[in-house]
Design goal:
Blueprint: H1 3-17, H2 30-40, H3 45-58, H4 62-66, H5 70-77, H6 84-100, H7 108-112, H8 119-128, H9 139-150, H10 161-168, H11 175-191, H12 210-213, H13 233-246, E1 251-252, H14 253-257, H15 263-275, E2 279-281, E3 286-289
Antiparallel strand pairs: 1-3, 2-3
The structure holds iron/sulfur cluster (SF4).
């Protein structure tokens, strides 16, 4: 397969079919793109949209967020899930102000040095905000490349250096065209070459897809099951955080005890929130969101 054929076909398809999303509006800015990328990592687009709009309306710049407390970031995160991302965005905003005068940097190594910004997010910002040529590899892109180029059904659970190399080889040389192709690969994986039911008849690379040509042999071994949520520590953490988000001050432990009957699991979930820096002791037997007041001595979590 010609790399250029692949990128050209997918990019042309993207230009005709891309979803109209606010972080794709020309000139939207690097901060907005960074916020969208962090939110989209573990949350579907439809849930991200209102949170993204509200977040940027309140904090249109890194400086605006950095001037607010981490507790407010956690409150605004609401029920998006995986709330450590709110802390990471706050830490990132502070670092952008301190190191880069409030402007999201455009160099990959500077982006990678920001707190909580990893391989994917740094390259996504460099490509989509600054039009640079970088392989932007999320789960969707990895799957598309694995299927269409390698002829394999799926790419496994984690992005590897080999995935970056394989994707970069598909990118056009010219940076703006490469950035467009990166967005196009992601979109193709998100809406056509999906994990469970690829719509090959609607795919722009059907005629050159290696997996399609090989007869689409299903992966060997058990299929991955969706993650359970009910009854997990994640659910308990979410319930505890919901109470703390709603409170305007410290919350007594007795109030938190009401959210879940299993004492051991509830204590473990609360301890996890404290360890992750999302929640902090607020004196006596009470807790609050991180940074929501002056420091206080920590009570024993298993009391
Ligand atoms: S032809 Fe099918 S398997 Fe191949 S890239 Fe397109 S949607 Fe995916």
């Amino acid at each position: 397969m010609s790399e250029h054929t692949f990128a050209t076909l997918v990019s042309r398809w993207y230009e005709r079919n891309a979803r109209d999303l606010p972080w794709r509006v020309p000139g939207v800015g690097a901060w907005a793109i960074l916020v969208s990328e962090v939110m989209l990592q573990q949350t579907p687009v439809v849930r991200v949209l209102p949170a993204y709009e509200a977040w940027l309306a309140r904090w249109p710049t890194p400086a605006a967020l950095a001037a607010d407390t981490p507790a407010e970031a956690i409150r605004m995160w609401g029920r998006l899930g995986y709330p450590r991302r709110a802390m990471r965005l706050h830490d990132c905003a502070v670092a952008i102000v301190e190191r880069h005068g409030g402007e999201v940097p455009d160099r990959l190594e500077q982006l990678l040095a920001l707190p909580g910004v990893g391989t994917y997010t740094a390259r996504a910002v460099a490509a989509f905000a600054y039009g640079q040529r970088h392989p932007v590899v999320d789960t969707n892109v990895r799957r598309v490349v694995c299927r269409a180029v390698a002829g394999e059904p799926d790419a496994g659970p984690a992005t590897r250096p080999a995935d970056l190399v394989a994707t970069e080889e598909l990118l056009p040389v010219e940076p703006a065209a490469a950035a467009l192709a990166s967005a196009a690969f992601m979109e193709l994986g998100a809406v056509v070459c999906t994990a469970r039911s690829p719509r090959c008849a609607a795919c722009p690379v059907e005629s050159i897809c290696a997996w399609r040509a090989s007869g689409q042999v299903a992966p060997a071994g058990p299929t991955r099951r969706p993650q359970r949520y009910a009854g997990t520590d994640r659910q308990v953490r979410g319930l505890l955080l919901a109470v703390l988000r709603e409170a305007s001050g410290p919350v007594p432990r007795q109030r938190l005890d009401q959210v879940w009957t299993d004492d051991v699991q509830r204590s473990r979930a609360l301890a996890g929130l404290v360890t992750d820096g999302l929640v902090e002791p607020a004196g006596g037997e009470s807790f609050r969101l991180a940074g929501d007041g002056p420091p206080t001595p920590a009570p024993a979590l298993d009391a």
